[in-house]
Amino acid sequence: MKKTVLSMLMLALSAIGWAQQATINGKFIKENTSTVNTGQIYLFKAENGGMVPLTMIPLARHDHSFQVQVADSDLNVIRYIGFPDEIYPVYLRKGDTLTLNAGLGEITYGGKVNAENKVFAEWNKIVTPLRKYSYTKDGFKRSADYFAGTLDSLVKPMEAFVNVIKTGNAKFDSYVKFMLPYCFRKDALGPFNMGLGYAEREQYPAFMSNMLNTEKFSNPQIWTLPFGYSYIQGTIFVKHYIYNHENGFLEDIIATEITNPKMRADYILSLLERQEYQNMAAFVKNNKQYMVTTQQKNRMKILEKRANLKEPGAESVDFAYPDMNGKVYHLKDFRGKVVLVDVWATWCKPCLAEQPALEALEKSFEGADIVFLSVSIDTEKDKWKNMVETKKLSGLHLYSNNQGSLIQDYEVTEVPRFILFDKNGKIVSYDAIRPSDPKLKELIQSKI
């Protein structure tokens, strides 16, 4: 009897504790895509012109349902829920239970819908016809003329709705009056970023033509949006390549389009950190002049160093790691010889698949001025040591524990990675051909 009472008491206390927390539940459906895992969504926060995932939320396989408890740090602020390419805003307070049914460009807010979420719910009712173009496969089956009419017809309802937002939460009201029109702009850009276009400018929706001709990226608040970075990039892309039918690299245009100095620098840094460029060294050289704050200048110095490392003929950054006996080898120890660095791991199947070709390559250069340096990123030293000894792997094997200059300065984020240095320690290839390709042997021979 006592056990039963105790169990019931514990369940009651647990229920009370759960009730005091904010929760989101519901369903989220997305058409299958090759770029997004449709089995999970995220709770995001906006940061530095993009989004930072806070919580990964699995979707049930049978009905795409989910439930998540929201941390206290994510209450009383705007957060975003969904897939990386399809998000919806939410605002929760302690004790709120919000039910969302979302996907394919639309959403309904149910459960305990506070004043802030009512704004988002009504907003999405207005813009759903527009969002259907980008978030469903059937969107492009509709004519371009139909899209133009849809977009222009929503402008006045959108503006009228934003003008009367008044929840009593002054901070929230002020921000969403800025945010929602930019959400509308981003949704308007979606079809054009996916290939929609018109033969003549006169055919473009009036809203789009006005937006492309007047957007100067002067408002620094753009960088507080969860899509600030993609909005800038998407607008410039559509303006120059779709609307104006221009050619050239997008990276060469960006800096001149952003009129707010600090936001321009933030965008340039973000582009470099995301590695979205054709020629990183040239991009750094042309755009480092735009850094404004000390922090931005310091970030650019780091990126400039990395950019130069990737260019053929660039000076190498020395790195040092121990072999299995503890003897430390530096890259600079091998000056006067060509060095092929193989960054690998025992758990990496493509790495192991290249091993026979790597050993054959090494044997073909026996006696030549070349060193084959294999650096493991394993974090289990015994496992690495055992494989090297058991398989009697050739070459000089070093252990990095996935740390140090080779990993950080050379930005090794995936393996296998082959890096080739010449006899003077300069970069020949930052991401060399794999040993299984005969062209690697030809490249090495040209440097011996």
TrEMBL record:
Secretion signal span: 1-21
Main location per the UniProt record: other
Compartments reported by the entry: Cell envelope
Domain spans labelled Thioredoxin: 310-448
Keyword Cell cycle: no
CDD domains: TlpA_like_family
InterPro entries linked to this entry: AhpC/TSA, Thioredoxin-like_sf, Thioredoxin_domain, Thioredoxin_ResA/DsbE_sf
Keywords (A to Z) from UniProt: Cytochrome c-type biogenesis, Disulfide bond, Redox-active center, Signal
The protein's name: TlpA disulfide reductase family protein
